[in-house]
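In response to a reviewer's request, we include the raw inputs and outputs for one of the modeled complexes. The two entities were modeled together in a single run.
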Amino acid sequence: MKLFDVLLGRTKPAEANLDALFGLPGAVITLQASENLVPTNQAGVCYKPMAGQRFEKTTEEMAELLGLDSGSGGRIRHETDKYAYEWLVVESPDFQELVNQIHVVNTTLEEQGFGPSLLCSVFGFSVVGAAGAGASTYLVYLYKRGTFYPFMPFPGKEQRDVPSELRLAEVLKEDLKLEEQKERWMPLWGLPVH
Amino acid sequence: MATKTRFPADRGLTARMMTTVFLIGLLYAVLVTALALSHLRIEWVILIPVVLVVAQFFYSDRIALWAMHAKVVTPEQAPQLHAVVDRLCNLANMPKPRVGIAQMDMPNAFATGRNQSHAVVCVTTGILRRLDEPELEAVLAHELSHVAHRDVAVMTIASFLGIISGLLMRVLFYGALFGGGGQGARRGGGNNNQGGGQLVLFELAAFGISAAFYFISFLLIRALSRYRELAADRSGAILIGQPRLLMNALIKVTGEIGRVPSQDLRTARNFNAFFFAPALTRGGGASMANLFSTHPSLEVRLEQLAQLEAKMGSSR
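The model returned the following structure tokens for the whole complex.
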């Protein structure tokens, strides 16, 4: 922070960094090979709504922009969580496609001035064969840091499996830029991404 | 890509803050020059406050927590509070401070610590009980802005001037009161051919000057404190994106405080500068009282936030 900003009591809103998202498809191969985890092909973008400024595109328009029509097998939905943050959750049959779509959602939000309001993107993973049960493991992407961390909540509880998260981070460190400051690995209870 | 921001700069606040910082700097320079020219042996007058202020600066987090009977809580002890702080810190890209709770029914919050990695953000149980989650988030965003702006460092340096000139004033006052003898003996250079009467006059003049210094620095520091509050309100509201929530929180918190008079509040008086809302509010809205207070009046804070909200709505 510059001296002048300190003297004047200013902060510049932190902008989002979207570049590292494209490291995900490589990480998926590692996850499947060594951890038996496959993507649930659902991902959510979390942002903070702003006063006087609704996100202009409706979810229908967003679906159109992402090519998510009835024939594509994918869909998008909008949710508000209990902390009043909003989520755009995208479902897509193909993971590479999903990453591209999440990137489009992010850039669209950014173009409309939501860059400082973007909190994180979350990608769901489940153990092979347990596809119907929903995601058990998540990869969280922190926009302001351009880093990932794994998040493994115990089902139905506000507790997380920290040892497994740390082990997973060890497995993924070659593929993804992981968040080194562990205190930034925030828990996200009640995720709308399944 | 080009950064698109929806927040126009507040040039008025920037200008006022700049002027205040400049005047405090100027006052420092004048004080140092005056001391250098006066040949007074006052090293210890400087040294003691330096030690005190450095200690206060380095232990500001511990002192504040101790004085407020606040305890640092883990994520397990206060999951909701930590979740809110986690999200705000990741949104603002700042390291997470420690989180504390003070068992006190007075609704308030404060942030302290010499830098971002030693920061602690503390709320009272009273504020947790009175505010709903989005409002609490707004209060925490205000406190995190204080941390990001390094207000503890800025205010410590600024108030150091007041401490020195205040101490100097007292020393010179007693020096003049009990005659120039002691003070004269301490003065170097053997310039003792002046009469005793002249010496007392000199002491009185020096006392007058340092009293003026004390008064001016006091006013400037209070003004700076008020501008820092407005700046934190602004940054906090921008961070959460909804000035309205901070307005609601302010109304709830100050309204409650104004209505609850009790001796408990007085114990918190020395911490006014670090609080979200001052614990002691004087009656009436006289402008003289505003000049002396550490926090801007509720009306001023609400007006700023309302303007910000209006600008956010119309800027596209």
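As requested, we also summarize the result in words. Chain A touches chain B at residues 1, 5-11, 13-15, 48-53, 82-85, 110-111, 113, 115-117, 119-120, 142, 144-145, 158, 181, 183-184, 186-187, 189 (CB under 8 Å). Chain A has a mean pLDDT of 84.
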